[in-house]
Write a structure and sequence with these properties.
Blueprint (H helix, E strand, L loop, with lengths): L8 E8 L6 H22 L2 E7 L14 H15 L3 E6 L3 E2 L5 E2 L1 E4 L4 E5 L14 H19 L29 H15 L3 E2 L3 H11 L1 H11 L1 H5 L3 H15 L2 H9 L2 H23 L11 E2 H35 L3 H6 L9 H23 L4 H9 L5
Parallel strand pairs: 1-2, 1-3, 3-7
Antiparallel strand pairs: 4-5, 6-7, 8-9
Length: about 400
């Protein structure tokens, strides 16, 4: 039974009928599934489910499917505008995926938005007779499964569990229950993950309070993004950085710097270079800050921006460390000692500290130059790492 004084949270379920080929059937299936979804949540949590609709812009498909991140961008704005804590977008079109051909659902815990496609839930897609109730049943399960991800529930091994890591569409039919521990975990996670606060005044104070209050959610998002995984999606940046590093490594002027500049100056410069690279990539890949029409700043926007900046910052720091290690290895293994003695015009750069300083300086310049080239990397791939938990 709900407490009289308990906080009510709002889960918005928004339909986006993009192509409008069979709108009546699509909306009827959604209505039935949402009714069951609402009853299921009312037994678990103090939530209200609001059914919303969005006519929206005309999204364009690519290679026969629509990009989920386009829906996610819209969802981030609509979630704030509609005043809901979580938003599940249901569309009838096929959604593309990065790891395989298509995806049925794409949850983004960082933004509290989930995208769901009904395209492959209908048996007719697979060449079987139409079965509306089966479509509805699968959609009910997918709604609960996606919402569970927004509350940071992990996968379950049992094929009958709502959070089972299903492979085939047919698996959705058998996913029918949650364990008591999962229910308890959802109750604990709801107030933590809702990010419901907003502010119009004292924004800097609001931002600082949000960072302290929601540090755990931000940390989880950064861990899920994984700097190593993010680096793998930045081939253009790495190529541009390595080109710069190779050129500078064999430039006599760089060896002059290594033998004369102070170590603390290089450390300060490195921090500046990493920060500048982070800002450059943030402007290219982040969805940006979102304010409501009444100019209120949302807690979820602060959390999303903070996690994005921190993920990119750690990735740049990791790249700097890798480059510094590679440069130092190159100096001590293959670079001729005679050149170390004769290239610098002030003093020979033969000491270990000279080599360390050169490694720091060239690595910092490489990261800075690479960030400019990295803006040409696919924004969809990068955003997929930053904002998406996984594709179902």
């Amino acid at each position: 039974m709900k407490s009289k004084h308990s906080q009510e949270y709002v889960v918005g379920v928004m339909t986006m009928d993009v192509e409008g080929k069979d709108s009546e059937r699509f909306l009827d299936c959604v209505d039935q599934a949402v009714s069951t979804f609402e009853r299921s949540l009312s037994d678990l949590l103090d939530v209200r489910v609001d059914t919303l609709s969005f006519e929206g812009p005309h999204l364009m498909p690519s290679a026969g499917a629509y990009a989920p991140l386009d829906f996610l961008r819209i969802g981030m704005t609509e979630k704030i505008e509609r005043g809901v804590h979580f938003l599940l977008i249901i569309t009838e079109v096929d959604l593309s995926a990065t790891s395989f051909g298509s995806t049925l659902a794409l949850p983004s815990q960082l933004t509290n938005v989930g995208i769901i496609s009904t395209k492959r839930l209908n048996p007719t897609f697979w060449g079987n007779p139409d079965h509306r109730q089966l479509t509805v049943r699968r959609l009910e399960t997918l709604l609960l499964h996606t919402f569970g991800h927004l509350l940071n529930l992990s996968y379950a091994k049992s094929p009958q569990n709502i959070m089972h890591d299903f492979v085939e569409v047919e698996d959705l039919t058998n996913m029918v229950h949650l364990t008591d521990s999962q229910r308890q975990e959802m109750r604990k996670a709801l107030p933590r993950e809702a990010h419901e606060r907003t502010s119009r005044k004292h924004r800097w104070r609001f931002i600082l309070q949000t960072l302290v209050r929601d540090w755990q959610s931000i940390a989880i998002a950064v861990i899920q993004a994984n700097p190593f995984r993010l680096l793998a999606r930045l081939p253009t940046m790495i190529t541009a950085a390595l080109s710069t590093i190779i050129f500078l490594f064999f430039t006599p002027d760089m060896w002059d710097v290594a033998s004369t500049v102070e170590l603390y100056q290089l450390i300060v410069f490195s921090f500046i270079a990493i920060a500048a690279a982070t800002i450059a990539l943030y402007q290219a890949f982040a969805f940006g800050g979102v304010l409501s029409r009444n100019r209120r700043l949302a807690e979820s926007t602060v959390v999303t921006s903070a996690a994005t900046i921190l993920s990119l910052l750690l990735t740049m720091a990791l790249l700097f460390g890798i480059f510094m290690g590679l440069i130092y290895m190159g100096i001590v293994t293959i670079f001729p000692r005679k050149l170390m003695e004769t290239w610098p015009t002030v003093d020979p750069a033969v000491r270990t500290i000279d080599h360390i300083k050169l490694s720091i300086f060239v690595a910092a310049l490489g990261v800075l130059a690479g960030s400019l080239g990295g803006r040409a990397d696919s924004d969809g791939l990068i955003r997929g790492v930053l904002f998406v938990d996984e594709e179902s």
